Amino acid sequence: MANFSGSGTKDDPWVLKTPPGTSEYQMWRDDAADPPAIVCQVGGTRLFYDARAIDDLHRMLKERGDWVPLGGADEQKPAADGSVEAWGRSLDNPVGGWYGLKKGLRGRFGVYMPPLMEALGLAEVTHDPKNNRMRAI
Known about the structure:
Elements lengths: L13 E4 L6 E7 L6 E6 L2 E6 L2 H12 L3 E2 L14 H4 L21 H11 L3 E3 L7 E4 L1
Antiparallel strand pairs: 1-2, 2-3, 3-4, 5-7, 6-7
């Protein structure tokens, strides 16, 4: 399991590292948002993901039953086929599109959500310099 701290509130956010361990960022739940959101603070940039992504991604990983490449990409760039990033923006996922909630900053799902899933004990994530993968626990 990845090293992390925090309880996931705005006042005590989860402090996580990207899969290669090169960058630190914070996440917390905002259940008052509509829809409830996971807020991701990366330096001066704040991203928002639909909170149901945690359960939906875990379900997808369990269904696939094997390692899935992360494939993190900015919203404006294509996501690698079969990756977590591609699933996080696919019309075939449970929300029928993007889990990212702020247009222009909806990407990087495959970068920031996997470490949270690992911290929550829902997934295993590789921590190589590139081409990381994840699978359900």
